[in-house]
Amino acid sequence: MQTGQTADTAEEQSSHRERKSDFYTILVSGVDDGNGGSDTNILVAVDVANHSIYGVSIPRDTKAVWNGKSHKINAAYNSGGMEKLSEVIAGQLGIPVDYTVLVNLKGFVALVDAIGGVDFEVPIDMDYEDPYQDLYIHIPKGMQHLSGADAIKVVRFREGYASQDIGRMQTQQNFLKAVARQTLKVSNLARVDAFVKIFEKYVETDLTLGNLAWLGGQAISIGSDNIAFSTLPGEWKSPYIHLDADEILTLVNEHLNPYVEDRVPADLNIPS
């Protein structure tokens, strides 16, 4: 009897882990030149079969637990690089992180300049100076054509929002949409190889050049109109953002789940 139960359980587990065709999760992170963990983290689900790309921003103050201690989730990068960060995020959400992409400030600037800058509606007047970080931001509200140097200031700016981190993440998401509108055009299909070479020079990733070229072509085919973003739902209770397990489960199953079967509460591991 025990053998039959074990076989049934193994079969159920295998079925629960059956993957969808051409569905990939990619963790995209930005580091602030070693000034404290991964400053920006977005988990991107690329669903080639259904022609959609969905990105979810992960607040850097999200509560996470490893080695029996509580941490802010962005500290996982300092603890063990992208491997540790991926492990922590995958463990909480109950889904795998298939690939990782790490961009530093210089790489971000170079990538924006490589596409000729970006037209972007700056949401608020941005005025901030921090000589310690050699950071001087003076960019007015309204439509601007941003060079790489200006773009990095816009996405790093956090003052003046009702909620500093959430406001900044919304600006980052809108900026990425603007980049997608400019970059993901059929006319750029012939430039995929050039984009890949720029990517290879400035970005750390476990995606191969072949992977990058294929994904780039698929992204152009999907188009910017089929790209959407959101932020992991949670509530601020100092010093952490505590994720809402019910809302997370719905979000995962609607947009991030690479498996054929829906995830269930037991798949998630969200600390209270």
What does this structure look like?
With 272 residues, the protein is of the alpha+beta class. It has a single domain (25-258), classed as Aminopeptidase (3-Layer(aba) Sandwich), CATH 3.40.630. The chain is 40% helix and 28% strand. It has 8 helices and 14 strands. The protein has helices at residues 2-16, 75-93, 105-114, 148-156, 164-183, 192-202, 209-222, 245-256; strands at 23-31, 38-47, 52-57, 63-66, 69-72, 99-104, 118-122, 126-130, 135-139, 142-146, 203-205, 227-231, 234-237, 240-243. The model has no long low-confidence stretch (mean pLDDT 90).
Task: Tell me briefly what this model is.
The protein has 272 residues and is of the alpha+beta class. The protein is 40% helix and 28% strand. The chain is globular and about 60 Å long.
List keywords for this structure.
six-stranded mixed beta sheet, two-stranded antiparallel sheet, 14 strands, single chain, 8 helices, 272 residues, Aminopeptidase, globular, alpha+beta
Mean pLDDT over all positions: 90
State the fourth-level CATH superfamily.
Answer: LCP protein
Radius of gyration (CA) equals 20 Å
Low-confidence stretches: none
CATH first level? Alpha Beta
CATH architecture: 3-Layer(aba) Sandwich
Pattern of helices and strands: HEEEEEHEHEEEEHHHEHEEEH
Coarse shape: globular
Structural class from helices and strands?
alpha+beta
Q: Briefly note the CATH topology name.
A: Aminopeptidase
Strand order of the largest sheet: 11-6-1-2-3-12
How many strand segments? 14
